[in-house]
Design brief:
The structure is a homodimer. Chain A is of the alpha+beta class. The first copy, chain A, is elongated, with a radius of gyration of 19 Å. The relative contact order of chain A is 0.14. Chain A binds a DNA duplex through α7.
DNA sequence: GGCATGCCTTGATTTGAATCAATGCCAGAT
DNA sequence: ATCTGGCATTGATTCAAATCAAGGCATGCC
């Protein structure tokens, strides 16, 4: 299929809404709309107070942290289906990150007040919000451990191993976005990322554009000490 | 008062339980117990599956991340009254951090399954859990921004400014624990922390043991570029 | 007292990563 | 086909922070 721009779920099919009383769902949908946005769109800026709970129906959003000096780093990518920073929306606190869209994507926007009210009253929604919040919290903890306990080469190596595992291809990994972005996600410069990749060459890694061949995963693991409590994912305990 | 070892709230007075149907509260308390623990106690290890939701009634808990190599860093301190990593308990996923107690403290322990069930069914509890999760998520995001966007001296300077503000003493800050620990929280070595403090001397800071005099907060701020979206706290939106 | 022990500071040195700079390599536009 | 702009690599160099090493200053203990 070409024009696969808009894959993903229809709003009514969201696991988030599964099992919800029909009245509740229609009520929520009255305070909601679907937005299709093109690559590059800024969804919100850091410092803004949330107006909507955004839900990724298709595509993804990238969350950036920016310093006063204008330097910008990728903190997280949110993929469909998930909530975009429920922590800010549910507390009504200003966003700590900017959200941008790296590919054509579709979002469900629910007015913040309506979403908060619905979560307060509806245990199933609360459950979904808790699942999303918990998963996001744990991703942040993993990232902090990664930053504090590993050097840059280890971070890169473990990133590749985790990626290949997630993609189901033990002998290679395809980078999901530009190397510069990945570098900032890993807390290093693009140059250091490039050097880390080439220094992993002696552990059995070959770089070909966005594709990284992993010739000897065991050797990479020996060099980088992957750890399920840092690199793992929690699986789909709570779908949204 | 001497013997102020056990300050803090009584379990029945927890905001968490405020407004809860009495039946629910007694039901929860049947699955709960209060534990008073001495300094140094390990509450749980990273990798363990949670048995209890721990709630800090008095004192605090420190959360550490450990690498395979045995290196250990402070990730967060949880102070009364708050939940200790609801993210792990509510998802049933293994702890990503070890919890230790740095001072005599008192905890309420609620059996994990009972706590999960209660949160599922009781909107008020769900609300409290969401508030705690959201606040903790945001603290992690701030920490990541701090690590990725600042150098070590900036981190130390902003830490001191935030501390003095939190303590209500604009002209000084009292370090809440050993410098080695704070250093690991800030992602640097104790030596670098010490050097950062002395290099902040030329911005108007004097070190006297655990007390740091801030002679000229404006100059420190100029050197370290504090940012409410990194150093701020969200206030007590959701008390637990 | 004297002497461990733990925590911190300071200095010397090394090292990992950032920065600076140049070049290469596309994909898309003309 | 040639130009162009964005991204990536590579090398040279600088710089920040870690590491290594020594000493200081408490506190508690015998």
């Amino acid at each position: 299929m070409d024009e696969m721009t808009y894959e993903g779920v229809a709003p009514e099919e969201l696991p988030l809404f599964r099992g919800l009383p029909v009245s509740r769902r229609t009520d929520l949908m009255r305070h909601a709309m679907v937005h299709s946005v093109s690559s590059g769109t800024v969804l919100f800026e850091q410092g803004e107070v949330p107006n909507f709970q955004l839900i990724v129906l298709a595509g993804s959003a990238q969350l950036f942290g920016r310093s006063a000096g204008g330097r910008e780093v990728l903190i997280e990518a949110v993929r469909a289906p998930d909530l975009v920073i429920p922590a800010a929306v549910l507390t009504g606190a200003p966003y700590l990150m900017q959200a941008r869209v790296p590919e054509p994507s579709r979002f469900l926007l629910i007015h913040a007040a309506a979403f908060r009210a619905a979560v307060e009253e509806e245990p199933l929604l609360a459950h979904a919000a808790i699942g999303s919040l918990a998963a996001q919290f744990r991703r942040m903890v993993r990232q902090i451990k990664n930053l504090k306990l590993r050097n840059s080469t280890e971070r890169v190596g473990c990133y590749l191993l985790a990626l290949s595992k997630r993609q189901g291809t033990p002998d290679r990994a395809v980078l999901p976005f530009e190397k510069t972005l990945i570098a900032s996600e890993l807390g290093i410069t693009r140059e250091s990322f490039s050097r880390a990749l080439s220094s992993l060459g002696k552990s059995g890694i070959r770089v070909d554009g966005q594709t990284i061949e992993i010739l000897d995963a065991a050797r990479v693991a020996a060099a980088c000490a992957p750890d399920p409590l840092i690199d793992g994912t929690d699986g789909e305990g709570f779908a949204v």
